[in-house]
Amino acid sequence: MENRRWTALYTEAVTQAEPTSAPSLVDAWRARVARDPDAPAIAYFDAILTAREVDELTDALAAGFHSLGTRRGDRVGIHLQNIPPFALCLLALWKLGATGLVLNPMYRGQELRRLVDDAGAVGIVCADTDVPDTARTLVGSSVEWMASTSALAFQSRDDPRVFPDGSRRPTPAEYDLEELIAEFRGTGPLPAALRGDDVALLTYTSGTTGPPKGAMNTHANLLAVTGTYAPWIELRPGDAVYAMAPLFHITGAVINATIALLHDALLVMTNRFDPAVAIDAFVEHRVTFTIGSITAFNAIAQLPHASREHFASLRSVYSGGAPIPPSTVSRFRERFGVYIHNIYGMTETSSGVIAVPLGAQAPVDEASGTLSVGVPLPGLDARVVDGSGRPLPPGEQGELVLRGPQVVPGYWRRPEETAAAMPEGWLHTGDGAIIDAEGWVYLVDRLKDQINTSGYKVWPREVEDTLYAHPAAHEVAVVGLPDDYRGEVVVAYVSLKAGAAATPEELVAFARDRLAAYKCPRVVHVVTDLPKTQTGKIRRNVLREQEASRATPSTTL
Asked: Residue 419: helix, strand or coil by DSSP?
């Protein structure tokens, strides 16, 4: 065991929490149903499903999947937004001993086919509106059956902000999810005798450093994450968890959906994230916890009518995907009265594993100005190492490496990549970090994002956080671009808040007053928007690939 000095920062709820004894996610789910079968488990607009109803629906769906030939160990794609069938499919597949292959519903063509082929999926569940495109994409693949569902199912409100036409299209797939449930209602699968090392989810990395790789998130991995994170956020029976993060992403699948399903909470969904719909759901369902990307919270902050009343029931709010600028946290708290806690995790850690303790405020590293992402959760070991893998003392920068029950055993059918990324069980994250004497972790940046200019090293995060403090700045990204004289130059891309104005010259001057000269951006581009992944993470690699000369306003020092 490492010297886990950070445990001194744990809350009483965390230190007194009992570790889960369930051998699998299905056992944990059945225990939840037994405790209070009539408690609400899933909310979708005006519809509420109790734990008993969800159990019956997923028993029937598991039997339906089995009738289509799905067996233990098979992979089945879930190509859906945040709607009840997503959660129902997860539970049904786990009851069969099968694996949920979570797929971004925005993927089309080769993007989708590549993951399906790599996983060897035997089936796929998608939205009825996506069936024609998906069917064409999967011709000749391993997929033997396709089922479809509608985002309009399991509710009757038909909110026009979410469903503009309000009409359900005829299902063109061979199998309809609701019809499968109706056909096998009252039946269920044979017990699968699951083990902790059975793969529950196959989640693919973003592929920013190479082809996407399938992380094998086991039942034990998900139980470790949800079992430690539930007391971390003091999740209680009857609480409501709003699925802000997309369920096809590891964060949404595990610490939105799975944590709510296993810990006697209500899972609240509203289809694809819409900030106005989200805050209405906060009020309607008395949401107590949510987690999402900082871009989602920024979208809420852009709503003129959003107020403290919308956040009145929330006890814990977390954001992951990228470290949050200190100025953003401060402004959000001043307006809404809630503190956004940082959290850090990866696909390979089965979601968030480093987080700010509930009720604490993350410190800021004096040298870099970076807000801490938190401290390691129970059971996790964390180190910062140099290029040769040697552990570094507190306060020194290096690569963050992690080991614990949350870390996946490896990548799907990629033993060489597994061995390279996880030598001796230590996951090499590729993130530059500092761990201080108390155990607070500060992410500096991805190592590949470090900028080398005139012999000096610049971490984009520090420059970004400085520009975020400008009152007109909405979102910021900083990259290094090749330069014959300096090696690289610091370049900033800034989008502005609605109704705000700032020239590139003003932004350069603002940075110059607060940063060493070599850290200041040589070029600033004012842009309307920044490229992002489907989970809201800004894509610096796309900006680096763009030509330095743009038509948008810019200035050069």
From this structure: helix
Give the residue among 132, 127, 90 at the shortest CA–CA distance from 106.
127
CB-based contact 104:34 (threshold 8 Å): no
- Long-range contacts of the stretch 327-333 (C-beta < 8 A, 24+): 327/465, 327/468, 327/469, 328/294, 328/297, 328/298, 328/468, 329/362, 329/371, 331/301, 332/297, 332/301
CB atoms within 10 A of CB 369: 20
- Chunked into runs of 10 residues, the chain (557 residues) has average pLDDT values of 88 95 96 98 98 98 97 98 98 98 92 95 96 95 97 95 82 89 94 94 76 94 98 98 96 97 98 97 98 90 96 96 80 96 96 97 84 96 95 94 98 96 94 94 77 73 88 92 76 92 93 85 92 76 66 43
- Whether CATH 3.90.1640.10 fits 450-556: no
The token duo for 250 is 């590891």
List 355's β-bridge partners, or say none. 343, 375
522 and 556 in contact (C-beta within 8 Å)? yes
Cβ atoms 95, 66 nearer than 8 A: no
d(CA 443, CA 368): 10
Task: Give, in order, the Cα–Cα distances in Å from 47 to each of 123, 171, 289, 385, 473.
Answer: 28, 22, 20, 50, 39
The residue count for the chain: 557
What's the pTM value of the predicted model, to 2 decimals? 0.84
| Residue 291 near residue 536, CB atoms below 8 Å | no
Domain residue extents for the chain? 5-157+170-435, 450-556
Distance separating alpha carbons of residues 240 and 81, to the nearest angstrom: 19
Phi, psi (rounded to 5 degrees) for 106: -85, -15
Q: For the segment 408-421, what is each residue's pLDDT rounded down to a tens digit? A: 999 999 999 999 99
Q: Quickly list DSSP for 217-257.
A: EEHHHHHHHHHHHHHHTT--TT-EEE--S-TTSHHHIIIII
End-to-end C-alpha distance for the chain, whole angstroms:
50
- Report how far residue 142's alpha carbon sits from residue 124's, in angstroms, rounded to the nearest whole number: 10
Angle between helices 326-336 and 460-468 (to 10 degrees): 30
In CATH, what class is 5-157+170-435? alpha beta
